[in-house]
Structures are given as structure tokens and as C-alpha cells.
From TrEMBL:
<feature type="domain" description="NAD-dependent epimerase/dehydratase">
    <location>
        <begin position="16"/>
        <end position="238"/>
    </location>
</feature>
<dbReference type="InterPro" id="IPR001509">
    <property type="entry name" value="Epimerase_deHydtase"/>
</dbReference>
<dbReference type="InterPro" id="IPR036291">
    <property type="entry name" value="NAD(P)-bd_dom_sf"/>
</dbReference>
<comment type="pathway">
    <text>Bacterial outer membrane biogenesis; LPS O-antigen biosynthesis.</text>
</comment>
<protein>
    <submittedName>
        <fullName>NAD-dependent dehydratase</fullName>
    </submittedName>
</protein>
<dbReference type="Pfam" id="PF01370">
    <property type="entry name" value="Epimerase"/>
</dbReference>
<comment type="similarity">
    <text>Belongs to the NAD(P)-dependent epimerase/dehydratase family.</text>
</comment>
């Protein structure tokens, strides 16, 4: 990490180029930028999206290193790059690492180099906690200063992009800001968090009360708030930030808090982990159980101190907002 402060302060009302606005994170970032009336160049693969005041759409095909960014970068002060090839649970590509590198490394660096050439002052890269690793042990949380230890191709590609971006910052006048979120949740969340909402909503019994793990999560509004702070904060220049709600929970606590948020009885009960592990092994779900019951904690002390930032939404409020949205979308699927 470079420790120099930015010598190129960002304007009070910067023009932002945003990628990935159709994704879960990017969509919320776009809404926030529109809310504070920043001019936005929205790089998207979708035609026919209704125009938004203050937003100029720039249509691309696939995100590759062959795109000429000169036109959309004209007059841009800050790039927020949230697009990329996402982590894939059931990979089908014959060379997954190459596929991740083409999008997450090569295309990212092409955009960043052209941004620096165009006089962009800051490049914010949405990375992943997978750069640090997959699991923490003995309640020792990851920090931004740990030696990276990615274990999958997605994490490797994100780390390689981070390293190349910081090297670019070292030889140009463009600042780079790297943000590594943990699991992001909020209204419309998919994957494992949506599954937890579903089982709690259906009042299914869950044998996780005595699992002594800790998970860091981040509510989408908290992540977006940090991204917006990083647009102009001088102390963000050339730094890596971890982000969470700063309230780590066990799997049992997550499920119990979701039950409260959904106004459902808690159906979490105690069950010996070794029996749970044996049962999961029998049905081929051992890896899934380990992800659910393992620990992944991040320490955001550096983020808080360097930026003077605190997550604005509490876990309880965030769970309530997420639960209300889920129940509104699934009002006919359960009762009680």
C-alpha cells in the first residue's frame, strides 16, 4: 500500500463513471449517486433502460480489454468499478482462472490505464474479502494489512487486479482506492442469505444454536455509504479498506435476529456439531455446512480511524429492512 495522501483533491461535485450498475452493489451505488446529484456516466450492457436525470448511459458489450474508454471517460473525475466476473459456485469454464483474469484483471487494468491517461483523479475498485482468504480461526479477524491468501481463482484474480492498480497509482497521478467487502446483504439479496430468510420465514427447525462461529456481514447501505465517502476523502488515496457492519454474529445469532426481524418464532435449537457434520457428509453437503458454520471476521478499525467512518445502519435495522422486503416479495409463500 502507498501511504501518500492525495495531491489531486476531487471536486465537490465530481463526475463519476460507474460500471456494474445492474449488479446488486452497483445498482445501489447508482441510486446513491443520483440521490446526491452527482453527474454519472453509467457503463451498462443493457439497452432500453429508462433515462435517469443526471445519468448518461454508455452501452458496452462484454467487459474486455479491447474497449476504447476515451469517450465515456471525457470529463470524468472518479471511476467506481464494481463490474467483474463474479464468484461462480458451479463453474463450467474449461479454464476458470483465465476467465476471471480476462475480466477482473485485464479489462480492469485497461479501464484504469485509460482513466489515468484521461486525467481521472481517483479509481475506486470493489474487490472482495476472498483476497484475504476463506476463513478466520481462533476469532482472529482479517485486516487490510494481512498477507493476502486467496484460495480460489476469483480471489486470485481480485488480488492480481489490486496489485496492478496500486502499481499504476505509483507511476501516475491517479489515486486508487480498494474496498474488500464481506458478504453483502439487503433488499433483493440472493444466494445463502436469501436461503436463510426463506427457512426462517417458513419456521423450519434449525440446529445451530451452539455453533460458536463468527461472521462479518455488510448491509448494502453501509457499503454504499463507505464507497461514497471514498469518492472525495483525501485519506482514502491509495489505501485498502475492509468493510462490515462491525457487529460479528454466529450463525445461530444471525438466524435468531432474522426471526425477530420477520416477527417469527425462533426455531434455532442445539444439536451436537459432530452429528450435524456426519449428516451433512452423508448427503454431500459437508462443504456447504462448513461455509455456514465456519468463521470469517474482518477488523474495520483501520477503516473507521482513517476515514472517520462508522456504519450508519445497525444490524437490527438492516435485518428489519431486508426482512420486510423479502416478506413483501414472498407474501403468498408462507403463513403465520
Amino acid at each position: 500500500m502507498l501511504d501518500d495522501a492525495s495531491l489531486h483533491p476531487v471536486l465537490d461535485t465530481p463526475t463519476i463513471l460507474l460500471t456494474g450498475s445492474t449488479g446488486f452493489v452497483g445498482r445501489s451505488v447508482l441510486n446513491a449517486l443520483v440521490g446526491v446529484k452527482y453527474p454519472v456516466v453509467n457503463v451498462t450492457r443493457k439497452n432500453g433502460v429508462p433515462p435517469v436525470p443526471g445519468v448518461q448511459d454508455f452501452i458496452i458489450g462484454s467487459l474486455t480489454d479491447e474497449i476504447d474508454w476515451k469517450v465515456p471517460l471525457s470529463g470524468v473525475d472518479v471511476v467506481i468499478h464494481s463490474a467483474g466476473r463474479a464468484h461462480v459456485m458451479n463453474e463450467t469454464h474449461s479454464n476458470p482462472l483465465q476467465a476471471f483474469r480476462e475480466v477482473n484483471v485485464d479489462a480492469t487494468l485497461k479501464l484504469a490505464q485509460q482513466a489515468a491517461d484521461a486525467g481521472v483523479k481517483r479509481f475506486i475498485f470493489i474487490s472482495s474479502i476472498k483476497v484475504n482468504g476463506e476463513e478466520t480461526r481462533a476469532h482472529r479477524a482479517f485486516t487490510a494489512h494481512d498477507v493476502p491468501a486467496p484460495l480460489d481463482d476469483y480471489g486470485v484474480s481480485k488480488l492480481e487486479a489490486e496489485q496492478a492498480l496500486l502499481a499504476l497509482a505509483g507511476r501516475t497521478s491517479m489515486d486508487v482506492v480498494i474496498i474488500r467487502p464481506v458478504l453483502v446483504y439487503g433488499p433483493g439479496v440472493k444466494a445463502n442469505f436469501e436461503r436463510m430468510l426463506s427457512v426462517v420465514n417458513k419456521k423450519l427447525p434449525l440446529p445451530f444454536r451452539t455453533i460458536d462461529n463468527r461472521r462479518s456481514l455488510v448491509f448494502i447501505d453501509n457499503l454504499v455509504d463507505l464507497i461514497c465517502v471514498c469518492i472525495k476523502h483525501p485519506a482514502a488515496a491509495n489505501q485498502v479498506f475492509l468493510v462490515s457492519d462491525d457487529n460479528d454474529l454466529s450463525i445461530g445469532q444471525i438466524l435468531e435476529k432474522l426471526a425477530v426481524a420477520m416477527n417469527k418464532p425462533s426455531c434455532v435449537f442445539s444439536f451436537p456439531y459432530f452429528l450435524l457434520n456426519a449428516a451433512a457428509s452423508l448427503v454431500g453437503k459437508k462443504e456447504f455446512l462448513q461455509r455456514l458454520c465456519g468463521s470469517l471476521q474482518v477488523d474495520i478499525t483501520d477503516t473507521r480511524k482513517r476515514l472517520g467512518w462508522t456504519p450508519p445502519v445497525s444490524v437490527e435495522e438492516a435485518f428489519a429492512i431486508t426482512a420486510r422486503h423479502y416478506q413483501a416479495q414472498h407474501s403468498g409463500s408462507s403463513h403465520g
